[in-house]
Amino acid sequence: MRLENSGQLALLDAVVFFAVSVVVSSVLLSYGETFGSVDLDSKEGTANPEEILGAFLNACIGSGITIQLSEPRLITEREKVSTCLAIEVEAIMGGLDPRLFSELNDVFTVILGRITNPVFQPHLVVLDMDSETYDAVLLLPEDLHVGGDQMAASTVLPCGAYICLVEVVLSAHALPEPVDVRIRDLDLRPSVVLSMADDNPGDCEHDYHGRNREVKIRLDVGRHI
Amino acid sequence: MRRAMRLDEDGVAGFFEDLPVLIIVLGAVCILVMTATRISAEIISNDAFDRLQTVAESIIDRVRSEATQLAEARGAPLLSSIVRLNLTDCAEAATLGGHAYKVVIAVLHPGIGSVVASAGRELPVSTCSAASSTLMNAIDESDRSIVIEARAMVW
Q: Quick check: B125 pLDDT over 70?
C-alpha cells in the first residue's frame, strides 16, 4: 500500500514537472515572438517620418495642374509641394470649397505613397494653429484613425495670412507573417537585391530573414532592371 | 537468498512501473531543451542582425554626408553630382572589407524606381541580411526638386 502511494506520488510529480515545463516553454517562446512584432523604430522599416516630411515638402509636384481659385491658376511641375500646400490651405481657410483641390490632393497622396515604405500607410494632416483646438484644415486620406502603431512628424508652414502645422502620420499595416512577396516591378523596395541573382539568370527564390519578419522573395531576373 | 530474490523481483517490477514517469520526465526535459535551443539561436541571429544593421546604417550615413557636401545654395545637391558619388568608397570604408553589400540610389519621385547609381561587392547570398535607407532631395536636369532614396543592403 505504501509502495503504491509512492508510485502515484512520483507520477503526479512527473505530470506537474511536465506541465511546468510546458508553461515555461510557452512563456519563453511567446516572449521571443515579441521580437518579431512590427517595430516602428526599426531602420529596416525605413520609417523616419521627419525624413519623409522634409522630402515631401521640398519635392516638386511633378506634373502641371490648374487649380480653381478666384481665377484659374496654373501650377507648373517645378512648383514645390510646400508652396502648393500653402496655396491650398490659404484658399480653404479663406472659404473656398476643399473639393476644388481634389486633383492637387491626389498628387499629394501619390507623392507621399511613393516616398513611404509600403509597410506603412502615410497620412497628411494640416492643422490650423490660430484656432485654440487646432482644427484640421486638411486630412489626406480621410480615414485616419488615431491610435495603434503610429509615428508622426510635424513642422510649421506659413500659409499666407495663416500659420499651419503640417504633420505626416505613418500607420503600420497589419501584415500577415510570414509574408510572401513576388517582385514584379520596382514598386517594391527590396528590388535592390535583384542584382544579386545576376549570375543565376531565371527565376530564383531568396529567403530574407529580417528582425521583424521572414519573407520569401521571388526574383525574375532580367525583367525588372 | 530468498530475500535477495525478492528484492530483484521488486526491482524489475519497479522499473516497469516507473516507465510512464520516465517518459513524462523525458518529454518535459526535451521540451525545455528545444525551447532553450530555439531561444539561443534567435538571440545569436539577433546579434548578427544588429551588427549588419550597424554596418548598413554606417554606409548610409557616409552616403548622406557625401551628398550633403554637394548641396548647392538651394539646399539640395544636383542629381548629376549624386550620380558621380563614389559609393564603393563609402561602403568599403563602412564594411572594412568584411561584408557583402549593395548600395543603390534610386529616384522615387517623379516617376519611381529608376536607379541612378549603384555599387556592390556581392558574395553568395546569406540567410541574414540588414538594410538601411535615407531620403534626400536633389535637383534634376529639368531644375525640378526630386526625391531620391539611398539604400544599402548588407549580408
A: no
* Residue A130, in any domain of the structure: yes
The complex scores an ipTM of 0.73
The three-state secondary structure class of A178 is coil
Q: Give the total number of structural domains in chain A.
A: 2
Q: Are A147 and A201 in the same domain? A: no
Residue spans of the domains in chain B: they are 2-154
Q: With cut-offs at 50, 70 and 90, classify the pLDDT of residue A202.
A: very low
CA atoms within a 13 Å half-sphere pointing along the CA-CB vector of B50: 7
Which position has the grid cell 568608397? Answer: B89
Residues A104 and A214 in one domain: no
- CA dist., res. A127 & res. A147, Å (int): 18
Report the residue of B12, B87, B144 to disrupt the A interface, i.e. the one with the largest count of A CBs within 10 Å.
B144
Nearest CB to B24: which of A15, A58, A80? A15
Q: What pLDDT score does B12 carry?
A: 52
